[in-house]
Amino acid sequence: MPAPGWVDSAEGAATPAGHEGPYGHAAARYDLPGGGVPPEGNPEGFPREPDDHGTPYGGGPQEPAQPAAAPRADGGRTCVACRSGHVDPDGYCEHCGHAQPRERDHLEEELGSVAAVSDRGLRHHRNEDSFAVSATALPDGSAATVAIVCDGVSSASRPDEASAAAAGAANEALLEALPRGAHAQEAMHEAILAAGAAVSALAPPSPGAQNAPACTLVGAVVGGGLLTIGWVGDSRAYWVPDDRAALPRRLTEDDSWAAQMVAAGLMGEAEAYADARAHAITGWLGADAYDLEPHTASFRPDHPGVVVVCTDGLWNYAESARELARILPPDAAERPLHSAQVLVGHALDGGGHDNITVAIVPFGAPAESGPATEAEPGAEPHPEV
Question: First-to-last CA distance in the chain?
């Protein structure tokens, strides 16, 4: 049964598709928190050991944000560190060897009531996350807001390209489907399939190529009094009511080794997520993924709040919905960009071991609640608080 005050329905939310048994002994990928490279000789299709340290940027923790390399008269770029050396095509100063800030190291966008922030973090050498936020109109003229967040799988090739392709394709698909009246849950399902096709198209044409580009995806659509989410992988969506006395909830269930252990009753949640194998994901977008079965769900909250859509770079530092609600500013619905900045800052203060991307999508108070209906199996928001 749905939680009080919710009308919800879901597809594919109970069990990660395409895997046999709780161990997910089909393929599993690691999204390495530090952006490291899997050990040599580790065959494709087996969990990879996570690297919590990764490759430091410039030899240590991230320095304060620096301006992009200055253009030179000869059309090249001047190093932001020594201010004299020429930057080579790989992004390093030929004089001092300093790696130059990339455009994607820190991104922010605010569009009306939706906002997102993405940061490279303190350990990764590049930002492999991506996001898209947008707004459109439904056929009745009411507004709909979209947020898509993707996390490139570090053990795969070109993860930054994969996340960007997925976010863009899903966003475009939703902006095409919603104005023509497609149900938001159906539109989200098709958008994730489009994102999967976009990532698969990045793979080498040779059959059997390993380490094809891959990423996770989580998205939210708010419109018509309905909150719709969709996901593949371990990026998450949380519901945080404006009234902090009300119960916050996690709305997604990870496609991961840890989640499968918990679902099978073989481990408790704390034990599973403390295991070195916890972040082996069992669902992703990419050419080497199994048959893609997106998870989608729709909810109708009876009170206002915000949806927090994020990568594990955030939830590793605030895993439960209750922890996240404590960190989220109370005026998140009025200041979504500021709130996203606060959440990213919390992850950086905690160590910033991974890329961090957060989108905040406010959900206004419904004009009038419709009749409650029983949810399909697996539709109830995650009970963790």
Answer: 18
Q: How far apart are CA 313 and CA 353, in angstroms?
A: 7
Query: Taking each helix axis from N to C terminus, what angle separates 159-177 and 184-200, rounded to the nearest 10 degrees?
Result: 150
What is the per-residue pLDDT across 281-337, written as a single tens digit (0 to 9) for each?
999 999 998 888 899 999 999 999 999 999 999 999 999 999 999 999 999 999 999
Side-chain half-sphere exposure of 201, counting CA atoms within 13 A = 11
Determine the 3-state secondary structure of 362 from DSSP. strand
- Which DSSP state fits 98? P
Would residue 226 be called left, alpha or beta, if left means φ above 0 and alpha means ψ between -120 and 50 degrees? beta
* CA-closest candidate to residue 124, choices 307, 311, 253: 311
Q: How far is it, in rounded angstroms, from Cα 384 to Cα 229?
A: 18
Task: Say which residue the tokens 């996390």 belong to.
Answer: 151
Name the pTM for this structure. Answer: 0.76
CA separation for the pair 187, 173 (Å, rounded): 8
Nearest C-alpha neighbor of 348 from the set 64, 104, 152, 30: 64
